[in-house]
Amino acid sequence: MFLALLLCYGGFTALCLSMDRHHAELLGRKPSARRRQGMKLSGWLLLALSLWAAVSSTGWGLGLVEWFAVLMLSALLLVLLMPYRPRLALALAGLSLLASPVAVFAKG
Amino acid sequence: MKEGFRQAMAWLHTWAGLIFGWLLFAIFLTGTLAYFKDEISHWMQPEIPARSLSSEASLTLAQHYLEQHAAGASRWLIDLPDAREPGLSVRWQQAPATPGTRGQFTEKLLDPQTGAEVQGRDTRGGEFFYRFHFQLQMPYPWGRWLSTIAAMVMFVALISGIITHKKIFKDFFTFRPRKGQRSWLDGHNAVGVLVLPFHLMITYSSLVIFMTMVMPASILAAYKGDAEAFYDEVFPASNTPDMAGKPGQLAPLAPLLERASEQWSGGRTGSLTVNNPGDANASVILARDGADRVVHDFGSALTFNGVTGQLLSATPKQALPMAIAGSFYGLHMGHFAGPVLRWLYFICGLAGTAMIGTGLVIWLGKRQLKHAKSGVMPFELRLVEVLNIASMSGLMVAVAAVFWANRLLPVAMAGRADWEVNSFFIVWGLSVLHAMVRRGRAGWVEQLALAALLFCALPLLNALTTPYHLGVTLMQGDWTMAGFDLTCLGSGLFFAWAAWKMQRAGQAGVVTRPRAKSIMLEQEAH
Predict the structure, then answer these.
(1) Are B147 and B136 in contact (CB under 8 A)?
(2) Distance linking the first and last C-alpha atoms of chain B
(3) Which of B26, B129, B175, B214 could form a disulfide with B33 if both were Cys (CB 3.0 to 4.6 A apart)?
(4) B20-68 pLDDT tens trace
(5) Counting beta carbons within 10 angstroms of the beta carbon of residue B460, is it exposed (0 to 12), middle (13 to 18) or buried (19 or more)?
(6) Domain count, chain A
(7) Does A76 lie at the interface with B, CB-CB under 8 angstroms?
């Protein structure tokens, strides 16, 4: 479940950065079209990966429930963190993406 | 046309949400607490020790106890302890004095390690919140009907809310605090949209749980008005052999657990029923504990001969429609959830509660603006304000009152469990009076501050009245007790923060605009 949480949080942050307004808020400038596309693609990819991570660790039944749970929690965390601690929200996304390969190995 | 439809939906969302909002808030909050039903019960009955346990050893102790104390009973019922419910509960039913009547039940709670009787204080524990969540403390079946109607309205409010909310994807990550009414709407949308899968699941599944009550027409039509025949077919009773009339020696029950586990490919036994325990035709029914699967299986059981240990019958495999209904039931109850997932369920429940609460605040806030200058509020707005305060902050105080009553009422008091429940309703009623007496913001601030005080002081009260204070429970790693105390402390701090915010927002309104503007400029500079 932890790996799925890391990937979900990273994915949502990427999706958030693919929007002009949030990109400007968090990074201070508007993104280029290519950057926006890249962020969108990697965001969706990370969310799909997190689904795989949840299902592969506990099977479809419990895996889907856990995936939805971390999906909702990570989005809620990001949205509540952004207006108060924007740097922390970004730093957490970086950390979670860095930590996810470690989580894969720790599990396997 | 399109806008007309959306406006109609907005109207529906506004009024359905308002009329049932107060009730739904209470249903959601108590339901959220019910995810920790067993943990709350454990805190409210600290006399029952939580220990590491094995089902086999507990069952042997239970059998030994029942053979000594209830040899002549017609039926034994044994509830095995698990990680969340540490007590080993045994019940037995006397053979009825006259045929056709129900024999009297006796219930005892045993220490799963020693087999000695444990006397827990008289309380409903977490069961109170669980029952209130769908029965609303009303006589059967009115509470169930009312809560089911509330669930339908909730479903309507969710769907109409999705249609009303124009920019779901554009505003997906948007939350702008410190902007008054705007922030409340942002918060309402954010918890609504981000936790939407949970809201839809919990609301729809609650309708599935009561579907035979709400929509009996198809059953009555197909079974020609005989609903009993439907239930007999859906929940086949295990046929148990009649009494032989000859005495027989009951075989040890513990080995049956292993055999049941093989039958269920690793599934645990939750409870056992022994029919005619002293008879040559004694039978043992093992019911499966649902905590290992998401899909709930209603009444999955094995029947053994009590003397020879021969497997007599097994309930058939779950049919697909039952599995679908069972998965909604399982998802709603979350029996399968381990500690982490259980906390996530709890957080989702709180998000749902917050969504309803913010909606109620927005309704009033929008309409109050019109009357801000005159300072006089029409009666209907004042009514909504009183109900808002009492149904939200008043309910929090009432929940705290249950826990305080649990520790302060004397253990030997007659009708103790009822007085815990009474204190909940008395305090809730008082909060209505208080909200009527005090004007608007003062009512909010005072009730939130009281909730903060009561919750923050609960760990202290626990330390003064029982030997299980945080210092002990944290050292021993008793996370149920420690977790309860810490959660109370956390909620108390949250209420204190909320009260402080309320107080400050009230003053900011008086000090007028320039100050708010300078704060905004300051933020933009950072």
Answers:
(1) yes
(2) 46
(3) B129
(4) 999 999 999 999 999 999 999 999 998 887 776 788 888 999 999 999 9
(5) middle
(6) 1
(7) yes
